[in-house]
Design brief:
Collagenase (Catalytic Domain), mainly alpha, binds zinc ion, four-stranded mixed sheet
């Protein structure tokens, strides 16, 4: 009886994992399950203030809870672009994440794929207007005067709806997640921490509001 009760209490406390549409290929299911298991194993004793506010601790369980409470279904879509990896399409249901074939084809590290997944999970929040993107400035150049380009596709971002004006949007929140993993994960490999730092630092360029940018700098970069 004790064994049975233990099993029941685990089942009750666990949040249901998302359900896959029948047409999601096995390789894609396997990849996202592997990726979520990796995120789910993250451990740390520290978190920045913004991270604590958005996700809670830098802890696998907190990340899985964040995801599972937002994304209930996973389907396949082109997401409207040959370069897209994943999307949320609010009018088809905000709690469904759509993946494209690029999820297993693009050549970015595992923690970067997870960044995309958590970016999309943030877009599920109807009460926050699905955290719509902001339009990037025109021109949109780095301090050396070179056009800022997408780390994902290489496309120039000037004038594109691919920026954030708040730390709490999809770009902001997912970079806060990765920067925290980079700085504070105690059981990640050097490679994972380094990759997380590279993608976080890159996506910070997309936070174009000065106040929002400064808030993230204060939270994670100026120490
Ligand atoms: Zn987005």
């Amino acid at each position: 009886m004790i064994g049975l009760l233990t099993v029941l209490s685990i089942a009750i406390s666990a949040v249901a994992a998302p359900v896959f549409d029948n047409n999601v290929p096995a390789e894609i299911r396997q990849q996202i399950v592997t990726d979520m298991n990796a995120v789910g194993s993250i451990s740390s004793a520290q978190a920045s203030g913004l991270h604590q506010h958005i996700f809670g601790p830098v802890l696998g369980k907190a990340y899985l809870n964040f995801f599972d409470t937002r994304i209930k279904k996973i389907g396949m879509s082109s997401c409207g672009s040959a370069n897209a990896v994943a999307c949320v399409i609010p009018f088809l249901g905000s709690n469904k994440m759509w993946l494209t074939q690029n999820y297993i084809k693009f050549s970015h590290p595992q923690i970067a794929r997870s960044m995309v997944v958590f970016h999309e999970a943030r877009h599920s929040e109807v009460k926050n207007g699905n955290w719509g993107h902001a339009t990037c400035p025109t021109p949109f150049n780095d301090p050396n005067g070179n056009p800022i380009k997408s780390i994902w596709t290489g496309a120039e971002l000037a004038g594109q709806p691919a920026c954030d004006i708040t730390p709490f949007g999809s770009y902001g929140s997912s970079l806060i997640m990765l920067k925290n993993i980079s700085k504070f994960c105690t059981n990640c490999s050097e490679k994972v921490r380094m990759d997380a730092g590279i993608y976080a630092d890159d996506q910070l360029k997309r936070v174009t509001n000065q106040q929002a940018y400064s808030a993230i700098r204060q939270d994670l970069y100026i120490r």
